[in-house]
């Protein structure tokens, strides 16, 4: 990585300019939409949807276990409301997370357990995001394009012979 941590996509240490940051399951195919990008998006979206469906079936079996145990209507309603609220919170925070970097704030850490309980909401958000782009692509593309512009600006200001600039007028000695 580069010494400049302000731009995660800026890895100019090798002198070749910024390199795009890979996305899980997509690598750097999101830059040019090549290398099976469309197929990967479809597969990841379908996989997240199938996993959410399977998880919903498991939760249904757990709910049936509560019904068999005859724990009562209040507990049954409490479990349904808990999973619904946690899934809604997980969906919202996952969806919002596609557009910004995690800050590591205590508020995000406190929502981590709710996102684990409401994992179905996170899976659905991931699946829906795959319909438009790779999850996190918009954020990484904006960072990458900013890093490219900054690199070109820095590179353009360094053109020419540095020895000539040191003398002030840019003329060579004979």
Average pLDDT, to the nearest integer?
85
Tell me the Rg in angstroms. Answer: 25 Å
Shape: elongated
How many H/I helical runs? 6
Overview of this protein structure:
- The chain is mainly alpha-helical and 174 residues long.
- The chain is built from six helices and no strands.
- It has helices at 37-69, 73-97, 106-117, 119-129, 137-157, 162-167.
- Helix 1 (37-69) runs antiparallel to helix 4 (119-129).
- The longest helix has 33 residues, at 37-69.
- Mean pLDDT is 85; it is low at 1-7 and 9-13.
How does the SSE layout of this entry go?
Elements (H helix, E strand, L loop, with lengths): L36 H33 L3 H25 L8 H12 L1 H11 L7 H21 L4 H6 L7
Helix pairs in contact: 1-4, 2-3, 2-4, 3-4
Short descriptors:
174 residues, mainly alpha, 62% helix, disordered N terminus
């Amino acid at each position: 990585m580069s010494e400049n941590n302000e731009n995660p996509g800026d890895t100019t240490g090798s002198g070749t300019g910024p390199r795009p940051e890979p996305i899980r399951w997509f690598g750097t195919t999101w830059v040019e939409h090549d290398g099976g990008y469309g197929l990967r998006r479809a597969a990841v979206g379908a996989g997240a949807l199938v996993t959410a469906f399977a998880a919903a079936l498991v939760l249904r079996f757990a709910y049936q276990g509560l019904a068999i145990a005859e724990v009562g209507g209040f507990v049954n309603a409490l479990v349904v409301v808990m999973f619904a609220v946690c899934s809604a919170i997980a969906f919202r925070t996952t969806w919002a997370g596609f557009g910004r970097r995690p800050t590591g704030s205590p508020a995000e850490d406190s929502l981590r357990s709710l996102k684990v309980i409401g994992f179905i909401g996170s899976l659905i958000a991931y699946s829906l995001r795959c319909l438009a782009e790779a999850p996190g692509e918009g954020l990484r593309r904006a960072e990458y394009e900013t890093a490219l512009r900054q690199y070109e600006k820095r590179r353009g200001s360094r053109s020419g012979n540095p020895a000539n600039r040191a003398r002030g007028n840019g003329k060579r000695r004979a």
